[in-house]
Structures are given as structure tokens and as C-alpha cells.
Amino acid sequence: MPAARLIIVDDHPLFRGALSQALSSAFPDAVIEEASSLDALTERLGEAVDVDIVLLDLSMPGVQGLSGLLYLRAQYPEIPVVVVSATEDRATIRRCLEFGASGFIPKSEPVERIRAAVQQVLAGTVWSPADIDLRGKYARVAAGQKCPRCGSSLDVAAVLEMRGYGAARPARGSRREFSRHDLAFAATGVLYPFFGTLLGWLGVALTGSDTASNILFGNLQKITSTQLGLSPILMGAANSSGGVMGKMIDAQSIVVASTATNWFGHEGTILRFVFWHSIALACLVGVLVMLQAYVFTGMIVH
Question: Could you tell me the pTM of the whole model?
């Protein structure tokens, strides 16, 4: 079996070197590489080499919050990402797992436990600190393996997905050209400019950020539009434009509205009032995108 390939992504060279040395002693046949930024990692992944694990720090220049993790899960869903961070906030750990991380290792963990965590992820399961329960929606146990927490044998055909961002890992040496989500949206045919716009609306409504929506769905928009012979530039812009209409119903906006009007405790009422306005405006943008795609094609920048 080919040697495992790991990439450590951290902007602190001393930590990268220490972690690399700790892992190389436990995995002598593994190929361990280092990257000082998300851009450097992206360049490395663009070389089409098989990578078994990316060990990612959350706090790096140019990376805000979970944006680095979200980007990797959207662009390279077949590569497991393990977050290695100085934070030990339980809410952050759970969010990372929820958004598709294959593990979360606090930097305060002993070397032996870090090695065990990497070994567990290589075996196809999720690792996190002991007080984070993995038996629920965060569990990823391959068919025939025993759950590392409860010890029960689970007869599942593939790795469990996490909110649609995670994906079953293909065999080494293979790359998925299109995900089933790409193919599903391509099935909408000539109506894709409309539904693609609503996808951007949904992304912002759920995340509260146009940037996060573009990170999550930008690659899907590009692949699907290419399959259908549409302009990837148009659908990328539609993802952002539709997202603007979803901003009014995201949780942050609803809270701001209730606070600004001193109407505390009526967030549900505000949401019900603006929800249909948001849908209507998103649909209008979807119709405009369809006209740009098929009628006013000269409006698209080439």
C-alpha cells in the first residue's frame, strides 16, 4: 500500500516542525509536507497528488473563523481535514465537526494522543477530545468497523456525511470530477439559472454571510454551469446576488432588527413577516439571471 501523505498547514514554522517530527517518528513511511498558508496548500493540492490528511490551523493570516475549513470542504471534499488549533472552545469544536472536519485536535494535547488521533483518522473515523460525543451526527464509521466510542459494530455502506458538506472518501488514486449535488442541479436543465440563484439565497440564509455562501457553493455553480453550457461568471454572480436577498432572514439580521426596534422576544414574528419578501425578491433575481443567460447575453462579461 502506498505511503500516507500528510500536509501540515500552520503559519508558525516552529509548530509545523515540531508536529512534523512527532508524526514522522510514529509514521516512518509517511510523506509529511508543510505549508505556511492556505494559498500554499491550495497550490500544492492543485498539483493533483494524493493527499490522505490535511492538518489545518484555524488562525492564519488571510483566514477568518472557519473559512479555511469551509473552503477545503467545498473545493476538495475527498480529502479529510483535521483541525489542529490552540482553541479548546467546545462550540468551535462542534462547529468544525458539523462542517465536515474529520477531527479536531487541540494543540495542548500530548504528543501520544496527537499521534493516535491521526492514526484514527487514517483508519476512516473521526477524532475529537474525549468530552465531545461522536456517536450522533458527527460519527464517521466505515462499514464493518467498530465505533471507537461505543464499541458497537455498525453495518453502514459508506462514511456518514455531515450536513451535506462531508463525503465518503474514494479509493486512493481516484478523484471525483463531479459530486452528486452537481449532477442533481444539472438535471434542472434550462431552469438552472433560476434555481442556482436560489441556492445562493439559501447559503446566506443559513450562514449569514455572502462570502461563506460563495465558498460553499461557488465550485458547484462553476461545475454545473459548465456542464449546461452556461457562463460560470454569470452563475458565480448569481450566487452572490441571490445571497443578498437571503441576508434579511438570517439569524443575525433578525436579532439586529428586534434589537433596533426594541421588540425583544418577537424574532419569530419578524422572521415570518420578512420571509416571503425575501423569497419574492430572490425569485425576481432568479428571473433576471434567466433573462441574462438566454436573452440578454450581451450583459455577461467575458
Answer: 0.50
